[in-house]
Model the fold of this input.
Amino acid sequence: MRRLPALILSLGLTAGSALGATSPPPQSLDAILSSAPASAWRDIPQDRLIYLRLPKGLVVIEVAPRFAPDHVANLRLLAGARFFDGLTVARVQDDYVVQWGDAEARRPRGGALERLPPEFDHRFTADEPFTALPDLDTYAPQTGFTDGFPAARDPLSGQAWLTHCYGMVGVGRDNAADSGDASELYAVIGQAPRQLDRNVALMGRVIEGIDILSSLPRGHGPLGFYEKASEHTAILSLAFGDQLPADRQVHFQALRTDSSTFQALVQNRRYRQDAWYKAPAGRIDVCNVPLPVRVAP
Amino acid sequence: MRRLPALILSLGLTAGSALGATSPPPQSLDAILSSAPASAWRDIPQDRLIYLRLPKGLVVIEVAPRFAPDHVANLRLLAGARFFDGLTVARVQDDYVVQWGDAEARRPRGGALERLPPEFDHRFTADEPFTALPDLDTYAPQTGFTDGFPAARDPLSGQAWLTHCYGMVGVGRDNAADSGDASELYAVIGQAPRQLDRNVALMGRVIEGIDILSSLPRGHGPLGFYEKASEHTAILSLAFGDQLPADRQVHFQALRTDSSTFQALVQNRRYRQDAWYKAPAGRIDVCNVPLPVRVAP
Done:
């Protein structure tokens, strides 16, 4: 059976042996990750995790308070008030986004605000971590990784922002820049819609269960909204990890994007060395770099 | 209900009015397309169309004989021998590819070859159409569109190739460059895996029904292969349009990528002018440019 080579999955390493090479590549991604020191992995604290329970399983999001502190704080209040429980996934637009929640829901909001400052980008500080990629990017002067998230910078203006890569989670808004309040969220499920960068607040990334969202039936109404209520997917619950009992928390670890292991991973993905590749790209897009996450061993 | 702006769908125009702007944008994508002259659209002949029938509906692929003439010809022989009918979709790897067919199937092949020249790229000629994008690309010296397909060029080496954008269809192969024979095909369903460019033969693009493929349940075996036969999706039939009776053919038209209408569309997508966008990108990736297709009016 002929195969295309593997993409690394967010959990679980891909089987290098499935590539069909008769001799192992010089340094496989599996080898890079399995030989990483413990210090290359960071624990994700429960207050940085959102657990979105759907009938088909669990979706887990890591939030990015450095980039969207007010949105994360507001979402925490909404989640604490069980604002989302019983709402639905109402929109699945192919090659674009899955969207859930409801900005018009008349539900307890736990004191959450109805308007927030945009948080589309911010002025980066000298001590803000940023692992830059050397490669050209269509949309930004510079791309790389901050706190494990794909990001971009403009060194001239001193601004930094998160990039709309597959699995990134943002906040729906109306035309007014301050009209997003985290009561309606979306996750990217297609080609990175980078034209949204700096136009909307990104607040996290799906680290587990993106396939549950991306394999939902597409909506056939305008903008990919479902036409019938029966098509919606129910949200069983949405809560931060520290709002859940301990037996429902999962201990995730993410590869540090400021580690030498991550640097080796990026080089491995820029220059594929296994027997399948005939013309390694020697380049990589910020949205093609795998960001490994595992359940703590 | 808060919304993100629309992506154009491959069939059917998006509702500009759903963006919530109180006054219409200077020139909407809808307006650009609805005012296009008939000459901006090209008919796609039936011998350039593959009809892949699945239980959930029809997937239609336009083939690209300029880039992969031998693969298209071989696929025509396989399809004519009903090689694919009764085979399955065996692999759905999230954010990567859907794969179908079976290189090991012991079935009538209609004289199709078992090995083909790679057709990963070719030397472009002076009269080969190419609508170049002005924007930087991470992977290629130049990107643009040829015959309605996303493509790239290296002006120094004189080579041209198709790019692995969402919905593009390629030919699975083993490690040997000539081991692909079009008996196993894949479609891209995630972030463009551009590292595959020039490493594998792309032979077409899904112009209808990509959502049927992209919403299939993901496989949880290695490389996204299904672990159980019961998970596979049956292929009811795969045939070129001219191999089908007239009443099963659909008359598709595609926007010419060498038309002034397409140029206006690209500019519209580079500089979003509706009220939702606060910071238009002024740039676009070759894989973010919509390639409109319609059923002939």
In short: Chain B touches chain A through 79 residues (CB under 8 Å). Chain B is about 10% helix and 25% strand. The domain at 46-253 of chain B is CATH 2.40.100.10 (Cyclophilin).
